[in-house]
Amino acid sequence: MLPSSLVDLTLARINAPSNLHQSRHFQRSSRYLQSAALKLKPPKETSPAYYSRRNDKDISLKKRSRLEDGGLRVRPVRDSPKAISELSQRVRKLEEVAMEHQAVLDPPAYTEEQLLTIYEDLLSNPEVAPQTVETPVTEDESNEERDQSLLMQLDQRLVASVGSPNSSSESLSSMLRRMTRAHRSHEVQRQHEDVHQEAYLRTLDKVESLVLELDAIQVCGDKLSVSPGVLSFSDWEALMRVALRAEDLKSAQLASELMQKTGLDVTEEHVNTILEYFVERGDTVGFENNLKHYVQDIPTEQQRHLHVKAHLNATSSSTFPTSALSIVHSYENQAAPPPMKTYSKVIHHLLTVPHSTAQAQAWDLFSHMRYVSHPTPDAILYTQMIRACASYYTASRAADPERALDLWTEMCIDNNITPLAGTYNAIILACARSGRKVYVAEAFRLAKQMLDSSRDACGLPAYLPDILTFCALLEGAKRVGDLARVRWILAEMIGEKQRGAADVTVNEKAMMHVFHAYAAYQVPFKRSMALLVEEEAGDKEKEKDNGESEIALQEQQIDNTEALPPVPEARTPLFTHVPPQTHHEVLAEAEILFARILEETGAKVNYETFEDAFVPHPKFGQVQITVRLLNSYLSVHYKHNSLENARTLFWKVYEDLGVQRSARTYQEAMERCANPKRSERATALDFAKKLMDQWKASNMEVSREGEIAPARTIEKLHAAYIKILSLTDNLDQALDHVRSFVARYHPSSVRCSRQPQKPNYRSMRTSLVAARPLVRLSTETEVPDDGVPPLLTFSDLEVLHHRLVAANRGEAIGYIKYICKAYEWALRVRRDETMRARPMEPENKEALVSLD
C-alpha cells in the first residue's frame, strides 16, 4: 500500500495551477489512488490543444457539472507551496532508501549454467577420508618406471664423469676401491661382475668409483676442480628405493654412506626408506641397530611410529603385543609420545586378539592416550572404538550400544568431526547387534540418516551403503525376528548389484543372516487356531473328505526330504510382499533360496532345481558354500521342520557338498534333539547317540595341543545329550555320561587353571609413570574370564535331577548335588584368587615412580 505522504504529494501536484494542463488520464489516476469511483463521460476532444484553450473558470464550471452528474465528491487537498515542499522532501528520502535497498537486494546477473555450477559447488560432498587404520602404500608401476628411467639417465651421465686421472691417483683409487669392495657381500660382487647386472648396481658402482677417485685426489694433495655433489636428492632417493625394492639392503646402506661422502646430508626421508625395509619384515633387531646408527637424538614422530610398527609386525595377530606396548610407554616417559596413528594401530592389533583381556586393554589404552598425549581422537580412531562396541569379549556377552552412541555423540556433536562411511557402519552394527528393538530401530534410523543427511545438488548421497551396511541391518532385523524387513533388505541388495554397485554383493555372511531370520521367525498361523464351523451333513462330510485329503497331502510333502523344496507349487514364484504365514511356506522360501545358491555357485549335488521360478540373471554367484552357511540353513529346518526330516538332511547335505562339520554343527543338532516333541523322543534319542559317536570320533573336543572347540560349546553339547537321555528315562546312561564328563573336566581344573599372578600391564595401582595405562575404562570385575574350562551347573542337570527324584534314587541325587556344588565352589575360588592376584614386578623398576 502506498504511503499517505506520497498520495498527498501526487494529488497536490495534480491540483496545482501549473499542472492543470495535464491530461484527463492523470486526474483519473489520482482519484483511483484515493479509491474513489467516478462516473466520467469521455470528452469530445482529447488533444492537448483542447485543454490549452480552457481557462480556470471553464475548468471549475466543468468540475461543478461533473459533480452534479452524480460523481463522488473528492476531499480537499492541501495545495500550499509549503506542504508540497515537505512532501517532496519525504518522497526524496523514500527514493533514497529504496535505491539503497535495491542495490543491496538485487543479485548480480548470472546465467543458468553459472548458477547451477555455484549450486553444485555449495552442495558438493567432501572427499571421503581413508577408513582404515593405516592404508598400505603400494608403489605404482609409473613410479617404478620413473626410477628405472632416472637410473638409466644417471648411468649414461656418469660414463663421462668417471675420467682417467694420473697414474698415482689411479693406482690409489683402485686400491681403495678394492678395499671397499672387500666389505661387500660375495653375492653383490658376483652381480657386479655379471654382464647383465642390474641398472642400480651399475649406477652405484660408477658413483662409488667416482667418489673413491675424488678421495684419492684429496689424499694426494691435489686441488679439487669438481663439485662433490655427484647426485641430487631425488637421484639418491630413486637409487635407494630401487635397491630396497630388489631386497638389496647393503646396496641401500652403501648409497647412504656415499651420499654423506659427496657432501649431502642424509635426510629423514632417506633414513625412513631404509627403516621401512626392516618394518615390513618385522626385523626389530635390524631396525633398532639402524635407528641407533642414523639417529642420535630422540626419533621423529614417523620414526617412532615405524619403531612400534616393527614390533607389531613381529607379533602374531593372535598374540598380545607386549613389546610394542612397552615401546609406546617408553616414548611417553621420554616426553615424546608416538603419533595418534601409532595408538590406532596398537589398538587395532589388541582388538584382533581373541581374548577378553586384550579387548579390555584396548579400551584402557584408548583412555590412557586421551589423558597422556592426544585428548581428541580422529575419525579413524573413533570408528575403531565404536566398532569395538559391536564386538564382545565372549560368545555370551552382548554388544554395548549405549557406549557406542555416547562416542558417536561426542565425535559428531561435541568435537564436530565429520563421520566416515565406516563410522556409520560401525554405529549401525553396534545398535543392531544388541538385539533390543529400541536400538534396532535406532540402527535403521541411522541408516536413513546416512543416506539422506549429505546429498549433493544432483541428489546423490555422500555415503553409499556397502555390503557391511546391509549385513549390519540384516543382523538387526534377524535378532528381532522381522522377516519382512529381511526380505526387503535382500531385495535391495540384489537391486543395488543389478544397478552396478561394486560394493554390494550377496555373500555368504548375508545369506547366513537371511537363513537365521527364517529360523527366528514366528509364523502367525497355527492349525490349532482354525475355528470349526458347523455345516449341513452332506456339505460337512464333503468338506471333511477334502480337508483330510489336503492335510494328508501336506504332511506327505513335508515328510518328503528327497526333493527340494518339498512342495510341488514351488515352480511358481513364492516371494510375494506378504511374509510366509505357515511353517510350510517358510520352508518353501528357504529351500528356493538354497537351491538357487547351489545352482549359481555350481555345487555338484543331486538336488532338484526349479528354473521356472528363477530369472536368468545371477544373484548368488558370489556366495561361498561354507560350514556357517550350512549351519544357518539347517537351523531353519530345526525350527520349522520335523526332526526326522532335519536328521536326514543333516547326514546328507554336508557329505554331498564336501563341507566338514564344525563344533557348532554338532552343538545345534544336539540342542534340537534335547527339545523334541513327545512323539519325536525316540527319533531324538537315536539321532543324539549317533551325533555323540560322531563327535567322539572327530576328536574335536580335546587333542594333545589342547582344546580345539570352545569350552562353552563343549559344555552345551554334553548338557543337551544328558537332557535327552533323561527325557527318555535312560537315567543310568545319563549318570555314566556325567561321570565321564567329570573325569575329563574335574572341578579342580576350574580352580587351578588360573595363573597366580597377573601381568603388570593389567595392574590397577595408581602411579604417575608406568609401563601400562594410567587411566582405565575397565575394572577386574568387568573383564570376563575366557580360560574357564567346561563345567556343569544345576540348570544343565535339572531334568536329570527331577527324573531321579521321581525314581526315588537318593544316592544318585546326592551325587548330582555334589557335582553342582563342586563346580560352583571352584568358580567362587577362581574368582577370589583372580581378585587377590598381585601384578608381576616390572622389568624396569627404575622407570616407575609409584604413589604406593
| Rg value | 44 Å
Count of β-strands: 4
Question: Helix segment count?
Answer: 36
Distance between the termini: 84 Å
| Average residue-wise pLDDT | 76
As residue ranges, the low-confidence spans are 19-52, 129-141, 162-197, 222-228, 548-573, 608-615, 843-852
Provide the structure class: mainly alpha
The level of helicity is 55-70%
Largest sheet: 2 strands, antiparallel
Cα shape: extended
Strand order of the largest sheet: 1-2
Strand content: under 5%
Q: Can I get a quick summary?
A:
By secondary structure, this protein is mainly α. 61% of the residues lie in helices and 1% in strands.
What does this structure look like?
By secondary structure, the protein is an all-alpha fold. Among the domains are: 4-105, no CATH class; 141-266, no CATH class; 465-625, no CATH class; 729-852. Helices cover 61% and strands 1% of the residues. The longest helix has 27 residues, at 810-836. The model is unreliable at 19-52, 129-141, 162-197, 222-228, 548-573, 608-615 and 843-852 (pLDDT under 50). One of its GO terms (molecular function) is mRNA binding. Residues 127-146 are annotated as: Disordered.
Defining key terms:
single chain, 852 residues, mainly alpha, two-stranded antiparallel ribbon, 36 helices, TPR-like_helical_dom_sf, mRNA binding
Topology:
Blueprint: H1 4-15, H2 24-33, H3 48-52, H4 56-68, H5 81-105, H6 112-122, H7 141-161, H8 167-181, H9 186-193, H10 199-220, H11 233-245, H12 249-261, H13 268-281, H14 284-294, H15 301-313, H16 322-333, H17 340-352, H18 356-372, H19 379-390, H20 401-414, H21 421-432, H22 437-452, H23 467-479, H24 483-498, H25 508-520, H26 537-559, H27 583-601, H28 627-640, H29 643-657, H30 663-673, H31 681-698, E1 702-703, E2 706-707, H32 711-727, H33 731-744, H34 747-752, E3 767-769, H35 798-807, H36 810-836, E4 849-850
Antiparallel strand pairs: 1-2, 3-4
Helix pairs in contact: 1-2, 1-5, 7-10, 7-11, 8-10, 10-12, 11-12, 11-13, 12-13, 13-14, 13-15, 14-15, 15-16, 15-17, 17-18, 17-19, 19-20, 19-21, 20-21, 21-22, 21-23, 22-23, 23-24, 23-25, 24-25, 25-28, 27-28, 28-29, 28-30, 30-31, 30-32, 31-32, 32-33, 32-35
